[in-house]
Amino acid sequence: MIGKITGRIDYRALDHVLIDVNGVGYLVYCSDRTLAALPATGQIAALYTDLVVREDLMQLFGFLTLVEKEWHRLLVSVQGVGAKASLAILGALGPDGVGRAIALGDWNAVKAAKGVGPKIAQRVVLDLKDKAPGLMAMGGSVAQATGDAMVEVAGEAIETPARPVAPAPTPTAQADALSALGNLGYGPGDAAGAVAQAARDDPQADTPTLIRAALKLLAPKG
Question: What Pfam families does its record include (predicted)?
């Protein structure tokens, strides 16, 4: 299994890049969002990868973060969702956006991805709703563990920080808010939905702000 590759981008296409790793070229398919965040041709890129092997095909898919990769693996586990549809969903929403959409039951957001119809979008939300809290919480621990990537190719160390595409609460803030709500006795599904709603309402919210907003959403009505 090829879990991560680091090398120079030889060329870029509409849906993939060719990465040269010590003289070996790897075709890596990525979402539109990931492709937009990669550096220019000739520069160093580091991608987490998922290798799909079939009788007549081998394809490598690339992701900027481990969380994005894990969302891809969950998405393709849904009946009717192939790798192309998964990349379309991740390209349209980003990993954090996918988590929020699923936690909120917002299948219309998933349907906005190119080539994804309403039935598939609803199935994604229904099948993954119970799994969303765990992966949303995973985002914080991964962000804390990795930070900006420092890669080395042929003795040359180059810093390659990920470039955000759209502002959003950090994975750490969302994960910490989920953990705090769990400690207060709220169920994973309810906590994830409230944090997702709070993050959507205030894209720049930090952890305390997310917790306060989520508690208001979870408070009994009436």
Answer: HHH_5, RuvA_C, RuvA_N
- DSSP helix/strand/coil, 31: coil
Contact 21, 9 (CB under 8 A): no
What per-residue confidence (pLDDT) applies to 171?
62
Per DSSP, the three-state class of 65 is coil
CATH placement of domain 168-217? 1.10.8
Kindly provide the residue ranges of all beta strands, DSSP E only, lying in 109-205, ordered along the sequence: 149-153, 156-160
- For domain 66-135, give the fold: DNA polymerase; domain 1 (1.10.150)
- For the chain, give every domain's residue range: 4-64+146-160, 66-135, 168-217
Instruction: Provide the whole-model pTM.
Output: 0.70
End-to-end CA gap in the chain:
54
